[in-house]
Amino acid sequence: MSRIAAYMRISVVERHENLLEETINSQRKIIERYIQEQEDLKNSILEEFVDEGYSGNSISRPGLDRLIEKIKKQQVDCIIVKDMSRFMRNYIEMGNYLENIFPFMGVRFIAINDGYDSKTEVQNGTSIDIQFKNLINDYYCRELSVKMKSTLHSAYNKGKYITGYPSYGYMKDPNDYTKIIPDPETADNVRYMFQLALENKSLMDIAKVLNREGIITPGRKRSKDVGYDLYNSRTKKDISKSLWSHSMIRRILINETYVGTFVFNKSTKTKLDGGKSTNNKKAEWKKIHNHHEAIVSQDDYDKVQLLLNARYRNGFKKRQEYSVPSILLGVVKCQKCGYALSIINNSDIKPLLYCKSCRSNSLKSRFVDIRIVEKEIVDILRTKFDIKNEDKLELEKEKDKLVKLNQRLSDKKLSYFEDYKLEKIDREAFKRIKDNIQMDIDSNNERISEIEDIVKKTSGIKQYNNETVKKYISAIYLSDKGIERIEYN
Questions:
Q1: Which CATH superfamily is domain 170-312 in?
Q2: What DSSP designation does 166 have?
Q3: What is the fold of 3-157?
Q4: pLDDT, tens digit, 9 for 90 and up, residues 399-419
Q5: Cα 38–44–47 angle (5° rounding)?
Q6: Does 252 or 246 have the greater pLDDT score?
Q7: % the chain with pLDDT above 70
């Protein structure tokens, strides 16, 4: 069964202007209708990859990055987009994908509105009309980028809220898409968080209360409103979107939006071709006070900031002194929920792994000393992927013997072929002897490939660090008992 990746994208301008003709849902309908009309596609497995608010000239986008990773792992057979500009406007990069990357990886590419299907395309996107169209898309994107930047800054200074999906607790005004108003479904949740903070509850305690009472998270609210999950590339597990964490609470409690202030110019794009944004200094931020209806009073907001700053000075900075870098960061996960584990240090300076997700849901969340797990993983890597020099030499000797043996067998097969031509043996005898010799050669070749694979995989580990661990291991699942299972790359 074919595995189809449907890629959809809308730009910053399209998102801000709320263009009805170009939305994620409109692209989804076009792609789904096309698939149902194609006999060879309609029974395929479909997976969606979405980027909202990203330029087509950027070659690094969350949804696209996730799709490329799937392609590298050969988990995609076909990519379908509404048109080529949805996938990429960069002329050189688009040409590289069409001419080289997709054909090499055996991936079929379909751009519906462009009438392009690599399965029936003879020139793999090198025809003049396709190249010209990609060039126009590239030029259009660069021209648009300059105009868009000027337009956005002008709109921000006029107080127009065109920063996409509003902060949790707010919604776009149905009568004016450039304004925001309190969301009747979630505004009280924000007030509740500030109330709990003023009662001197910790961030983690507030998260536990919200989880216990089943209060909807920002991720869940957004998925519910727009019909799809913009951030589905961040984690494989659904748990991260359904549970509150202390970091989520903190982001809300320090957000000035809730006192009616519009804050913008917090970051700047450094490159036209999709470079990463750089955060501006707070002195460069621009603010418009009394911009929209406040959810919490300025007095309550200020009191909460004092509480948070006091906790930071007395608690967080002190814990930072005991932070220990680990070779397992980004790899260790909770066996129970699949959430990435973090490191916490107790008063004995003993670094422990714990699960923020389970902790936020009042479940047992602490695990073994991370140093114990590190030692076990190093031992596993050393045993599984590293061999001693003397063992490597023995394998190389075995390989050389097999190569020489195959050469002798090939010469032997040629000798029998000459006997057959001289009619010293009949055809049936020659065929039987030839097949037996070939079986021996094939068997030797399998062993040669096996040796080469072993040597390739088990040599070259010069240092056991985080990069080394990620090279060989994709995930380590832990419980309070220790390592439960390991997923290798």
A1: Putative Large Serine Recombinase; Chain B, Domain 2 (3.90.1750.20)
A2: P
A3: Rossmann fold (3.40.50)
A4: 889 999 988 998 888 888 888
A5: 115
A6: 252
A7: 74
